[in-house]
Amino acid sequence: MFQVRTDLALEVRELYQEEKQQEIPGVKVDQEEDTDVLVTRVDVMDQQGAEIMGKKQGMYITLESPGLRKADADLKDHISQVLAKELKALLPERKNLKALVVGLGNWNVTPDALGPKAVAKIHVTRHLFKMYQKESDDHMIEVSAISPGVMGTTGLETGEIIKGIVEHSRPDVVVVVDALASRKMERVNATIQISTTGISPGSGVGNKRMALDEESLGVPVIAVGVPTVVDAATLTNDTIQLVIKAFSKQAQAGSEFYSMLEKLKEEEKYGLIREVLEPYNANVMVTPKEIDDIILDLSQIIANGINIALHPGIDLKDVNRYIH
Amino acid sequence: MFQVRTDLALEVRELYQEEKQQEIPGVKVDQEEDTDVLVTRVDVMDQQGAEIMGKKQGMYITLESPGLRKADADLKDHISQVLAKELKALLPERKNLKALVVGLGNWNVTPDALGPKAVAKIHVTRHLFKMYQKESDDHMIEVSAISPGVMGTTGLETGEIIKGIVEHSRPDVVVVVDALASRKMERVNATIQISTTGISPGSGVGNKRMALDEESLGVPVIAVGVPTVVDAATLTNDTIQLVIKAFSKQAQAGSEFYSMLEKLKEEEKYGLIREVLEPYNANVMVTPKEIDDIILDLSQIIANGINIALHPGIDLKDVNRYIH
Amino acid sequence: MFQVRTDLALEVRELYQEEKQQEIPGVKVDQEEDTDVLVTRVDVMDQQGAEIMGKKQGMYITLESPGLRKADADLKDHISQVLAKELKALLPERKNLKALVVGLGNWNVTPDALGPKAVAKIHVTRHLFKMYQKESDDHMIEVSAISPGVMGTTGLETGEIIKGIVEHSRPDVVVVVDALASRKMERVNATIQISTTGISPGSGVGNKRMALDEESLGVPVIAVGVPTVVDAATLTNDTIQLVIKAFSKQAQAGSEFYSMLEKLKEEEKYGLIREVLEPYNANVMVTPKEIDDIILDLSQIIANGINIALHPGIDLKDVNRYIH
Amino acid sequence: MFQVRTDLALEVRELYQEEKQQEIPGVKVDQEEDTDVLVTRVDVMDQQGAEIMGKKQGMYITLESPGLRKADADLKDHISQVLAKELKALLPERKNLKALVVGLGNWNVTPDALGPKAVAKIHVTRHLFKMYQKESDDHMIEVSAISPGVMGTTGLETGEIIKGIVEHSRPDVVVVVDALASRKMERVNATIQISTTGISPGSGVGNKRMALDEESLGVPVIAVGVPTVVDAATLTNDTIQLVIKAFSKQAQAGSEFYSMLEKLKEEEKYGLIREVLEPYNANVMVTPKEIDDIILDLSQIIANGINIALHPGIDLKDVNRYIH
Asked: Which of B246, B281, D180, D241 has CB 3.0 to 4.6 Å from D225, enough for a Cys bridge?
């Protein structure tokens, strides 16, 4: 059966609610909203919740703001600050924290380049702490950062690379930035998800197979992601749903045709999707035309949020200017 | 009514034939095929043909080769040579021809960057002819090349820029390279169209509004294009067609439902497409995930073909190596 | 004889003063300084001054600030504002001014990419004025922008391209951004020169042979440039001077050796420079290791200054954020 | 005292020979030459040789070919093949070898980007061996590749990163590609050095402090490097030498002036170099103007050589075409 592809906990819960009209057992949700951003915190509290959602136990926080896609600088600053605040609350509480920031994805595939581009703007300090043999600083913490590339270009599992780096550089926390997929175009480039569960195998735009999480790396892993594409299959599925809905309105419940529609819903939809997408060779995505500019903006917003959350002495005034 | 968007004369003719089951009056088509490439020459011979097709009178040659998308180097070389041969036949016959090659599109939008990337690989010689005050050469002709950018980043009509350059540098022919849109994903990045009619307003992935043709520039304009995207509307339309077809098989001709399907076909399809795409904000495209690499390959193939066609002394052995 | 290569009027005057110990006739100089920037205005008032300086009549304003090279964001903002103020004073006074901004130089040669990189950040509006058929706006003026590339990659004289664009788009003023050469490393990436005389043949890092000035284009041309390299010949010359000075201190005036030093000064220095640089193939430059980052910063500062100077409604708060 | 900076064993030996007029004890040198390439093999055989040279025991092979800098495609192919042959002879003899290729240096600093750019063209296969659970293949060996970035942008020692990857992915050999510094401009971009001793702390254009060698990584490490810059200090030193030589010709041996020249040679030269370079802030390099294109060419040549040396089924015909 066709599985809507989404990396957003928010959307998994939304799909469940659409079907069952109730909250997922074992899952607690709260929302907070200001004029510009809707913050939704989905807390997957136990194993039951995790199984229903197909997502690991932990906290999934979503920042939704359609304005993210537009060029309003003040709103973007505001979102960097909300991101910083939410992120900070999830970081281990400890003086002189040591953090490793990892950018997943492929530099050369635009919608997948969010991670590497954000990481390139992270304020990296670990080498300075080493050089000056400092243990602590009032303004900065010890931060390192790497974008290891993707398996198709390195031949290496990202997990193997990061595990080695964690073993040798001993950070207290790993922050992973990645591009995600959404089921709804309206969330693409308009949503940031923060989670305490790291990155699961098979998530993201490319193929990353080994998990990057506390279990595999031995330190807490916080993931920050933005959906940058919708699967073409999702667009096709949306279309089919709408066509069926259009017919259903005109068909009488109980009639032969109505049951045909129902039957189709169950059995043939996936076949139709495959038939539509087959000449497309499956390997297509749906993406806004101005994706290059959008990724540039988003990577700055994400980097700003992480820099503010990590370094005690960095605030918005600093991040907007001349940090490479 | 929904208009399938395509820049390929081949597809306009295909649509006509699907509906009318006959050749377009005023249009002559011939095909030639070897193991790897299907060459179709659509000759729009008179005003009637031009009106039906919505394309100007002139020759439209299409090279189709699914292999273009894969990494087979020999096939790519072969296609460069076929392109060179077809192109050469369209160039003005004249010794010491002077050519200007123009790359349309936006460097920073991957599927639209085909033109600028191909033009960056053109073997440019005009300044050398000027420097050494040469009038002719056995191996090279006088070639200049420019990628003027798009209106959104320059504020200028591309046509204004090119017209000025043609007036001051006086080429005998202009070759324009551009990214196109196709109605079928199977043709995306697998088809090259050469035409003698230049670029029409509104063609291409971005917005280019002034025509670049013999009428506006005063010299013959040959366009070389590759479809690099499919409109999301086209994917949606394909889906709707297939759903209706699936239902039609089960509905009896003459029944109320059958006529409902027919009715839908005429009236509501466009509304459905709009409803599906509305949250996508209209401004989306469907594109292969590995588009960045594909554009790199295609730009090399196109540049190779143009370099071989223009310069008498350049052949395949030369173009594959170290020309920046 | 060896000619120190410099594009800075300031340095030409400095060389004259070092030798003659007086001001150049026909040239007026005034200076203004705050804590961070030294503004020098060299006004070449008549033909005599122009001939001695080897520079056209007109105003040459230099902003010098060693801090430009460092990462101090506040200082950079300050310099953008000083640049904007000086630039504004040179613009034609007229409501609804129309401006064309031109980025000279080669995208792919880092120290020469200043112009194209700055121009990519200019706030372009001309197409919007056309689209909405507006004649005037309180916040914006009509701005277009282009980076035409260099002759080595286009085969075209930059002047030919720009002249055509000016003829077709009819701006009231042209602002040209270019990378320059300095005679002193301490000025490299630490100096901005604004002049009312446009760009002369042979200036800049690459080869640009046709002048871009009011005479050739028919509208005022304001040039904004930053020295981003020093010729290797200049470094060699500096070295030779210092060696000679070291010897001179120890040689008695009037002695045979002293006159040998003097003689060398006149006759052999150029030969020595050539001998040192010969294996270097002449085509080398001296440049800071972190040139890529520096060019990025400088292009932002220059673009900020131009955007503030041109558009009545843009100030520092806007330019620092999210303008692509 | 001023130390000429060079990463080439060839130049260290050259300097020794210039001074002592004899071969370095413990060092064996042989040369082989065809029309286009001079291959010099410097074998540092024992501890004495290593100490005199300041280089570790092992083999240093240099390919010198001035043509490398020009655009002759056939010569470049030839050099790829010579590189492949020399490299192959140094690889561990073993069926189904597993290799990790590492690109050192900074993507964003042109002359330092040689390693990352070459590595991006390496034919990577390890993930395919894993995916298809293959142990061996007739045409390919298991190759992985990574460009870890530099300490200034990651905060991590390159050695820490690579050590972790070697521990987790267990290659049999590591091939490291890096940009070097030469003492002579004529060798810049015209020389390839292959060595069996890996990368020593402080080598290369940037700062890499932990060694990458068999001792630190536990597997043989073969380094492939190309000098892409000359230190400005080297250029200055060359100049001073030539000035002194010019004076010396005219000064009588034994005269006071002659001894002054000698004295200067020993004591003041370094001071002069510092005095010349001081305003340059020490952090400058001398580089050809067309460095961007040169690095592109060189990275292709190096990648071609490595691909041919590693994979039994890849030859020149394959590497010249469409490998990303």
From this structure: D180
